[in-house]
Amino acid sequence: MSEVHSRDGERTEQELRARLARLDLATKVRLLSGRDHWSTYPAEEIGLRSIVLSDGTVGIRGVRWSEEDTSINTPSTPAVAATFDVEVAAAMGRVIGREARRKGVDVILGPVVNLQRSPFGGRHFEAFSEDPWLTAQLGAAMVVGMQAEGPATTVKHFVANEAETDRLTSNSVVAERVLRELYLAPFEEIVRAGGLGVMSAYNRVNGVLATDSDLVTDVLKGEWSFDGLVVSDWGAVRSVEDTARGGTDLAMPGPHTTWAAGLLDAVRAGRVAEDTIDDKVLRLLRLAARVGALDRIAPLVEVRSLPRPPVAESDEVRELLRRTAARGTVLLRNEGRTLPLDPSTLGSVALIGVGATTPRSNGGGSASVIAPATVSPLEALTAALPGARLRHAEGARPVSLVRTLTAANGTAPGGGGVALVEFLDAAGRVLGSELRDRLDTLIYGMGYPDGVPEDEVAAIRASTRLTVPRGGDYLFAGAGAGYATIIVDGETRFDAELVPINADAVIGMSLPPQAVVELAMTAGRPVDVVFTYTPARRTVAALRLGFDEVAPDDDALIDDAVEAARGADVALVFVGTSSEDEAEGFDRTTLRLPGRQDDLVSAVAAVNTRTVVVVSVGAPVLMPWRDDVAAIVLTWFGGQEMGPALADVLTGVAEPGGRLPVTFPAGEEGLPSPFPVEGDVVYSEGLDIGYRAHERSGREPAYAFGHGLGYTDWSVGGVAARETAAGVEITAQLANTGSRRGRQVVQVYASRRQSAVERPAMWYAGAAVRELPAGGVETVTIEIPRRLFEHWDVATGSWALEPGLFHLRVGTSSRELPQTAGITLT
C-alpha cells in the first residue's frame, strides 16, 4: 500500500473508510473505550497503534506524576491571558506541544476555554478570562501552537462547566442566546482554527448531560462541521445508549467504562445504530492519522522535520518561560513610582511570607505538574541585588497542610531516597516498591510503577527515618483519602479513616486529607515512621508526607515580620492562595486571602511606607489594604521561572507587561455563584458577567478588566474606524511619552447606545500589543470581526446584525477609554 498524507483530504478519508471496513463490530466498540487511564486500544490489523493522552494546560505530566520525569511548568493560563498577546499564547502552545512530543503524548487534554464566570470558581487558574472573545483568541492561538508541534488538542470542557461544586451532578441553566454569545463562542473559534479534539463535560446543560447533548451532535458536529474526536471527561460517560447517540466518541478512562459493559449488546439489539459506531471509530482513526498513529499515513505535522524538543530545564525553555512570566505579571498599583527598584540605592530589603522561599507555581488537580528545580524569589533577588542585605521572615502561614517532607529530614530505610513506598495486596504482601526523592502529593491509581498490577493494590505504605539538627516539637503528616495508620518507632499513633471534603474523586488527588501526629524530637536521634493507608478509590490514590517544626502562633510570626520590615529600605510581602483554596474539585467560599495574610500586610505597611505586596493567585482576591501599600504586583501562578521573572520586574530589567483578563471586585456582594441550588447552577446574570456586570450596575471594582500599569507613560489618540468585508478596522496612534522603553496594550470596547436588542453596556472587541522606545510613536490597527457586532437571534436560530450606529471606545483598560469612534453598519 502506498503512503498517503493526512492532509490529502479525500484520499485519506477513503483510506480510513477502507480500514474501518476491515474491523468487526466487537473491535469497533472496543476502540471507543480507553485501554487504561491514559491510552486507547490498538488495532494492529489495520495498523493502528495505541494513542496516548495527557493533561496539559501548564505542562505535560505524561502518564505518571513522578519527580523522575519532570515537566516544564509554564505560567498559568490567566498569566498567559494577561499578556493579551496571541503570539505569546502561541509560543506557550508550542513549548507545551514540544513537551508532549518529548514525552510521547499524542493528545493534549487542554486548553480550558470555559469562562471565569464567577471569581469564586475553584478552577479559575486554568481558564483564560471572563471575556469570551479574549478567551477565543488566545485559546485558538494556543491550540494552533500546540498542534504545530505534532500532537492534537482537546479543548475543554464542552460546555457551561464553570463550577466545580457537585460538578458530576449539577445542571447549568443557561439561556440559548447566552450560551451562543458567551460560553460556546470560544469553542466555535477554536474549531474554525483547526482544533482536532473537544472534551465533553461532567455537568448537565439545561437538564441534559453534556456528554449526551444535542449541542454536541447538532451544533459542534453539525453546524460547525467539526470532524474531530469528542473525548469524555474522565468518568463522564454514565449512559450506554443516550451518550452513544449524543455525540461523545471516546469514553475515558478505561478499561472499565460504561460502554465497555453494555455498548456492544446495545448495538446488537438495535438500540444503537452501527452507523453511529462507525462515525465514532472513523473520527478516532482520523485523529490517529493526524497525529501519526496509523501505519502508512503521514501525520499533519512531519515530526521528523521538527527540531528535537529541549528538556524541561534547558536554557531555551527557562528563558522563554521567564520572559512570558514577566509579560503576564500585572502591576496593579505603583504609588510614587516605588517600582522599579534601583539596586544601587538599596541597603536592606525585607522579604516576608512563605511565598518568598516556596512560591506556588501551578494550581491543584489534574492540571498540576512536577517541575524541575526552580529558583525562589529569595534566591533570584539575592542574585539581582548583590549590594543589599536581604532578610526573610515567614509571616502568617496561609495553609494548614504540614510542609512537604524533604531529604533535609527524611531518609528511606536503607537510603537512596526520602521514603520507601510499597504497594500491598489484600493479604499484606508487597507487590512492588519504589524509592521517592520528593514527597509532595504523589498520584497513584492513574499509573502505578512498572510491574505493579493495579487491580491487586489494596494498600500503600510509606516508610522514612526522621532526623533533626535541633531538638524540639515537630509535626509529621500523612495524607491520603482512605483508612490510615501512622506508626512511630513501633507505636501506633494514628488509626482512623481520612475523609475528603467532598465525594468528588479528584479531591483525593488535589487535596488529600491529612493525619497529623506531634513528635518530641531529639537532635541527631532517628525516629522511624511508617504511614499506611487503604485508598478509598483505586482510580485516584494520592500520597503525601509532611514534616515541620511546630511553628509559633501567627501573632508571633507577624511580630517577627514587622521587625524585619521596620527600617528596611523596602518591604516585599508575599501573599497568595494554596491548594487548599484553589484546586480542581471544589469552589471557593470566600475571596479573602487565607489565614491572617491580610493582617500581615496591614502590620508591615504600618511600619514601612515602601511596602510592595506580591500576590500569587489564580483568581481574584480581596485586598482590603490596597490603598495602604506602595505597590501591588500580581504574578498569578507564574510557573517554574516565576522567581527570576519577578526579580526582573521588580528591578526594571523587564516591564510588567500584564493587563487584567478578569475583574478584581471590591467586595463579594452581587457576584455570580458557582454553588448549585437544588442541583441547578442558574446563569441568571445572562450576558453580564465580569466587567460587563460592573459597567451595567455602576459598581466600582477594586481593579478593572484590562487594568495594568507599566514603567513609562503613554497617550492614545487619532482614533478612526472603517467597515471592511470581514468586519471593522480601527486605527489609533500610540505614543510612548515617558523616559524609558515600555509595553502597552491598546484595547477596544464596543457599545450600542440605542438598540432594540438587549445588549451589555459594552463588550471587549480586541486589542493590540506594542513595545515602543521612549518617544516612540506607532499607528496600531485592530481588526474586529463582524460577528462581534451580531447577536444570536433565538427566533430564527441564527446570527443577526441589527443595522445602525455602534460606538468603539479605545484606551488602556475597560475604565480608561478616552477615545471614541462611531461606525454605522448595515
Describe, in short, the structure shown.
The protein is an alpha/beta fold. Helix content is 22%, strand content 26%.
Defining key terms:
alpha/beta; globular; Immunoglobulin-like; 18 helices; Jelly Rolls; 826 residues; seven-stranded antiparallel β-sheet
Radius of gyration (CA) equals 27 Å
Approximate shape? globular
Task: Find the count of extended strands (DSSP E, 2+ residues).
Answer: 38
Low-confidence parts lasting 5 or more residues at pLDDT below 50?
A: none
User: What is the fold-level CATH name, i.e. the topology of the domain at 410-549?
Assistant: Jelly Rolls
**Quaternary structure state of the chains depicted:** single chain
Q: What is the first-to-last residue Cα distance?
A: 55 Å
The fraction of residues in strands falls at 25-35%
General description of the model:
- 56% of the residues are buried.
- The chain has 826 residues and is an alpha/beta fold.
- The chain is globular, with a radius of gyration of 27 Å.
- Strand 16 and strand 17 form a beta hairpin.
- The chain is built from 18 helices and 38 strands.
- The N and C termini lie far apart (55 Å).
- Helix 15 (554-565) runs parallel beside helix 16.
- The strands form 10 sheets. Strands 15, 16, 17, 19, 21, 22 and 24 form a 7-stranded antiparallel β-sheet that branches. Strands 12-28-27-26-13-14 form a 6-stranded mixed β-sheet, with helices on both faces. A 4-stranded mixed β-sheet has the order 9-8-6-29, with no helix packed on it.
- Among the domains are: 410-549, Sandwich (Jelly Rolls), CATH 2.60.120.260; 712-825, Immunoglobulins (Immunoglobulin-like, Sandwich), CATH 2.60.40.
